[in-house]
Design a protein that fits this description.
Elements: E1 5-6, E2 16-20, E3 23-27, H1 36-43, E4 62-69, E5 72-79, E6 92-94, H2 108-115, H3 125-136, H4 144-150, H5 162-169, H6 181-184, H7 186-196, E7 202-206, E8 209-213, H8 217-226, E9 231-233, H9 239-244, E10 253-255, E11 265-267, E12 271-275, H10 280-290, H11 293-298, H12 304-309, H13 312-317, H14 325-331, E13 335-340, E14 343-348, H15 349-352, E15 353-355, E16 358-359, E17 366-373, E18 379-385, E19 396-405, E20 408-417, E21 424-425, H16 427-433, H17 440-449, H18 464-483
Parallel strand pairs: 2-6, 8-10, 9-10
Antiparallel strand pairs: 1-7, 2-3, 4-5, 4-6, 7-8, 11-12, 12-17, 13-14, 13-17, 15-16, 18-19, 19-20, 20-21
Length: about 500
């Protein structure tokens, strides 16, 4: 279908520029809802990238996207089905077609997959290869744990994962990372991308589908005042499904995922502050350094491709009662910085959630950052219950934090997701535990008290009875782990 194009607002640039493998792409006729997957397959005829689920679960559409961050060019695996073209400015997209050598020789990863019999029907194989490639260029000797986590977002119905994991371990038998085409040209590509960085905001209109790519946080703040009806997209892991699955018409869209001011992580001796567009992958190592319990919890969130683009501000901002990060940040006494124009306000994250689908946020106001205060005496326990271990939505999530003085608990927080219309603290159960020794007798009382805190629903993920029993069991699990000296305390050193 021929796309009709209207010139953008005066004083702006309407061209989206990025590199695709070895080629500079300049697009003036792209729509806000055009995905990278469709562009690769329909416009570029790069059909190695497959369309599977269309919702970021199967990984068949995995590609690498490189961006310059803090002076370094970083490549991350992403689901091209949820990646929209206007978000790609000043990036480098790498597809499976570019892996082969200039003489046509298969890449060591591809050779290893062949020799290890890591493929049968082959449909999912390109996505798996790209996920393994993304892990390999980060670490040439990945551990079993790293391999499994890099493959969390890739589903294979044919082989099982044994041969694929073996292929990942055998890559270096077929070639060296020193000879990798992408890495050998990394410095040149970094310079190329820095030339493309936005020095203006970009506005385009295709078939009543308007997109805006701001040049800076200041520009975005002003633009949002002018377009209060706009939908904000950072990682598109949630809103993207409105487009790809529900076929929703969203107009206009403001893309903010690449704004450097919203990707900053700063800290001092009192707190750590994450910009709203910090991704799960960027947040996890910083937070886990101080709260090791967060490590496994983060890796229960989606797959690697989603964690690489999903943002902490987006996870809080969508207001979902089963969002994974809200209970964690509430348990850590987090606050959210809301901004409208040049005006800012700070509220506790638990106060941000009012009711199902209702948040304490005003028109043209947006989440700028999230702050987590330091408390060296805080114990943290984090749990996620779902039907499967990897890539699943929470049935119940639970974050427990407290301090201990003279063997007694105080400053207790029991925060749950999936138990109420919003992420919510179990305050009756908290009151039962505060000031008490954390033993089996007080656990029983807290389990009774939590019945006054929640009336969970029955839905496709679990019954009300199941959810309540899980919540009770997690309190007991926490007590047993604490008693077993597996408690986690804050490490204040940087």
């Amino acid at each position: 279908m021929q796309k009709s194009y209207k010139k953008s607002d005066s004083g702006t640039n309407n061209t989206i520029k990025f590199y695709l493998n070895d080629e500079l792409i300049e697009l003036e006729n792209t729509g806000a809802r055009d995905t990278l997957l469709d562009y690769l397959r329909l416009e570029q005829c790069l059909t190695g990238t497959k369309e599977g689920c269309g919702e970021g679960d199967c990984g068949a559409c995995t590609v690498l996207v490189g961006r310059v961050n803090a002076g370094e060019l970083e490549y991350k695996t992403v689901n091209s089905c949820l990646c929209f073209i206007p978000s790609l400015n000043a990036s480098h997209v790498v597809t499976v077609e570019s892996l082969r050598a200039f003489d046509g020789t298969l890449h060591p990863i591809q050779q290893s997959m062949v020799k290890s019999h890591g493929s049968q029907c082959g449909f999912c194989t390109p996505g798996i290869v790209m996920s393994l490639y993304g892990a390999w260029i980060k670490s040439v000797e990945p551990t079993n744990n790293n391999i499994e986590r890099s493959l969390q977002g890739n589903l294979c119905r044919c082989t099982g994962y044994g041969p694929i994991i073996q292929a990942a371990k055998s890559i270096n038998s077929y070639g060296s990372v020193r000879d990798d085409k992408l890495l050998n040209r990394k410095a040149m590509m970094k310079n190329n991308l820095m030339v493309l960085e936005l020095k203006h905001h970009s506005i385009g209109m295709i078939q009543s589908s308007k997109y805006i790519v701001p040049e800076s946080l200041e520009s975005f703040s002003k633009l949002f005042l002018n377009y209060p009806e706009a939908t904000i997209i950072a990682g598109a892991t949630d809103v993207g499904l409105w487009i790809t699955k529900d076929l929703s018409i969203i107009n206009p869209i403001i893309f903010i995922g690449s704004l450097p001011e919203l990707q900053k992580i700063s800290h001092n001796e009192n707190m750590i502050e994450f910009g709203a567009c910090v991704t799960y992958s960027q947040c996890e190592p910083v937070l886990s350094k101080h709260y090791p319990a967060a490590y496994d919890y983060f890796y229960r969130i989606a797959g690697e491709q989603i964690r690489n683009v999903g943002t902490i501000g987006g996870n809080i901002g969508n207001g979902s009662p089963i969002g994974d990060l809200a209970p964690l940040f509430i348990g850590l006494h987090g606050t959210v910085i809301l901004r409208k124009g040049n005006d800012k306000r700070e509220i506790a994250i638990e106060d941000y959630f009012i009711d199902y689908g209702v948040q304490d946020i005003k028109q043209s106001e947006f989440i700028e950052s999230i702050r987590i205060p330091f408390n060296q005496n805080l114990f943290l326990f984090a749990y996620k219950i779902s039907k499967r271990r990897d890539e699943d939505i929470s049935t119940v999530s639970a974050i427990f934090s407290f301090e201990v003085l003279d063997d007694k608990l105080f400053n207790v927080r029991l925060v749950f997701g999936g138990m109420a219309p919003i992420p919510k603290r179990a305050k009756y159960a908290e009151d039962t535990l505060n000031g008490k020794i954390f033993d089996s007798s007080i656990v029983k009382l807290a389990q009774l008290a939590i019945e006054n805190d929640f009336e969970p629903i029955t839905d496709m993920r679990a019954s009300s009875t199941y959810r309540m029993q899980v919540a009770k069991n997690l309190i007991q699990k926490c007590q047993l782990e604490y008693q077993g000296k597996e408690s986690i305390k804050l490490n204040s050193s940087f």
